[in-house]
Amino acid sequence: MKYILFGVILLSLAGCYAAPTPTPYPLQQYPATWTPAPTPTNTPPAPTATLVIQHTPGALATRDPNARLAPNAPLGTLGFWIKLDETQAPPSKEILARAQILVAPASVARSSAQFLFLETAVAPDGAALAPEWNGIVLPFTATVTAQDIAALRETLRPRLVLASAWVTDTARLGELAPAADGIVLQNFLRAPDAPLDQFPTESEWLRDMDTLAKLAGPETIILNTFDFGASGAALPVTQQWLHLALASHWLATNNAHTFFGVVGALPPTLLAPELTFQLGAPTSGIFKQNGVYQRRFANGLVLVNPTADAHAFFLPRAYRNRAGNVITQIELPPHTGEILEVVE
Asked: Are residues 271 and 296 in the same domain?
């Protein structure tokens, strides 16, 4: 009886409230011409023809013995070359093994992956050049012409012929680069007899960067050379120059045949940490932002401040610097460069 009475009360209360009005929902209508897709089937169609492939055994393709083989820098890392002669301090075993190109006046021990170039001012005969040499480097001289280099390339084929020129002598570079297999680019960022505390202006820096970037054709080999000169310098200045030169080289490198090298009075151990960066392929060109020049890579960021003013700014993400510290902001003093690796 109690349940019957309770149900009557509920029904009477329900009558006091209006039923909610449904909210209209606009349905998207397909066009009138739309029809459902056919039912999928996994039954393959019957073959309509038979393809017969006949293979005649024969000799495998071989590389043309007269084709020139250019050295490549490791993908995403710094291409590096070393000059081995009495004017240079002997490199450590680690640095020697890391180089892809060795330039020497006489034969030296090397790995099978390293290219060996003979530095000689005398044009050798192709038959007399020992087989271990991959090519020759002609030192800087004003007497060598583009015609001389073209004739020498044919004589030494498939060996490579590299000519030397100053980074500031664009006319000479324009003459020799098309005739040679590559260029030894000298005096990058500084002349060897300039004071080590004298840094290039921003316009001078841009001039050398533009020359290096434009010189890098698809097949042009470039041995970019930073010269510390014959006299040493205090360690902070030496490190500042090295960081500036390395970062600038990374910014302007535009092909897989560009290599960085240092000559002059430089402790070879300073280079060891700089040769292990794994930046990957570039993902941008050079751009200027926050007062410094930058270039993004798949695994890093390269920054150069060639101006006389310091610049501080926040980074777009977390990076790891040379010291191994994770940073999200940075300050670049005047005439400095920085190479940062992405923090995963």
From this structure: no
User: Is residue 262 domain-shared with residue 325, that is, in the same domain?
Assistant: no
**DSSP helix/strand/coil, 2:** helix
CA distance 76 to 299: 9
pLDDT at 93 over 50: yes
pLDDT band at 266 (very low <50, low <70, confident <90, very high): low
Residue-number span of the structural domain to which 325 is assigned: 287-342
pTM (two decimals): 0.79
Closest among 42, 133, 128, 101 to 259, alpha carbons compared? 101
Using an 8 Å Cβ cutoff, are 129 and 118 in contact? yes
Q: In what order do the strands lie in the sheet containing 300-305?
A: 287-289, 292-297, 300-305, 336-342, 311-320, 326-332
Q: Distance between CA atoms of 311 and 307, rounded to whole angstroms?
A: 9
pLDDT 10s digits, 7-33: 444 444 444 444 444 444 343 333 444
